[in-house]
Design goal:
Blueprint (H helix, E strand, L loop, with lengths): L62 H18 L1 H5 L4 H11 L12 H13 L39 E3 L5 E5 L13 H5 L7 E3 L6 E2 L13 E3 L4 E4 L13 E3 L4 E4 L12 E3 L4 E2 L3
Parallel strand pairs: 2-3, 3-5, 4-6, 5-7, 6-8, 7-9, 8-10
Antiparallel strand pairs: 1-2
Helix pairs in contact: 1-4, 3-4
Length: 286
């Protein structure tokens, strides 16, 4: 029998596949999977395909929790854009969902660490195929990834400053991400916006000897405080973008042992550069 009760939480994402579980507010387009991320503009039109279910409705969400979710979703959109948050298959959506429901810290949008915790969670999901793959060390799943200290495990209840490979300054701002030889997969463009959100403090980025792929995105030039960039021994292709010439503090640029080609941008040879690794690619001239 079609349900006569509207659900308790608005869905942000509409899908073409009818839902097995009632949505929180009736929608003009049936939702495929009920979303925990509320919409700022929930639909006021009843669905033309009501959900058929024998399960009782879940407990109504409180207005305080609904506001928390709306504000956190808006804060994530400010970092990643609405398209990434609205798409249930993206690492950004997965990260926000984890922060809303599963993170023991239960932050809100005004929490000082919300943005960088969201960014590092997105990074984790982006480099593990949304959690389906595993890291060698300190991945979220303790059954498939060893970790010398559980406080260092990604997506644990400890501060993201304690997570594996992360270094923070005295203000708990991330200054260094050093996760080399750890089985990272995926592509750098999938989480570059989240890295850019850390640009005011991020000084060292080291992803050497992993399996990251794709081209190096132009947004890398927005990491304005970056001093060292290690992307060597991965599966990067394409050319070096001209944007690294904007990195006025850069001392080390390492992209050796990839599958890159094209010319070397002359602007990368600025006065601060001390170490340049371009070996074992297919570059030709400047």
């Amino acid at each position: 029998m079609p349900s006569t009760m509207p659900s308790v939480m608005p869905s942000v994402i509409h899908s073409a596949i009818p839902s097995r579980v009632p949505s929180v507010i009736p929608s003009a387009i049936p939702s495929g999977v009920p979303s925990v991320i509320p919409s700022n503009t929930p639909s006021d039109t009843h669905s033309s395909s009501p959900t058929i279910t024998n399960a009782p409705s879940s407990s109504p969400i409180t207005s305080v929790e609904l506001q928390r979710r709306q504000e956190m979703a808006a804060a994530a959109v400010a970092v990643s854009g609405s398209a990434s948050i609205d798409d249930t298959t993206t690492p950004q959506h997965k990260a926000l969902e984890w922060l809303l429901l599963d993170d023991d810290l239960q932050l809100n949008a005004s929490s000082p660490s919300f943005e960088q915790r969201y960014s590092m969670s997105t990074f984790y999901f982006a480099t593990t195929n949304n959690g389906q793959n595993t890291w060698i060390n300190c991945g979220a799943d303790s059954s498939t990834s060893s970790c010398s200290s559980e406080s260092e495990r990604f997506l644990s209840s400890s501060s993201e400053c304690d997570w594996f490979g992360i270094t923070c300054n005295g203000n708990d701002e991330i200054t260094k991400i050093d996760i080399r030889e750890n089985g990272l997969t995926g592509s750098l463009p999938m989480f570059i916006k989240e890295l850019v959100s850390l640009s005011s403090s991020l000084e060292v980025l080291r992803f050497s000897k992993n399996a990251l792929s794709s081209t190096i995105p132009t947004e890398i030039g927005q990491l304005s405080n970056l001093q060292s960039l290690f992307l060597n021994n991965n599966n990067f292709v394409g050319t070096i973008p001209t944007s690294p010439e904007n990195l006025s503090k850069l001392t080390t640029f390492s992209v050796g042992n990839n599958g890159m080609d094209g010319t070397i941008p002359s602007g990368i040879f600025h006065p601060t550069l001390r170490n340049l690794d371009l070996d074992d690619n297919n570059f030709h001239g400047t």
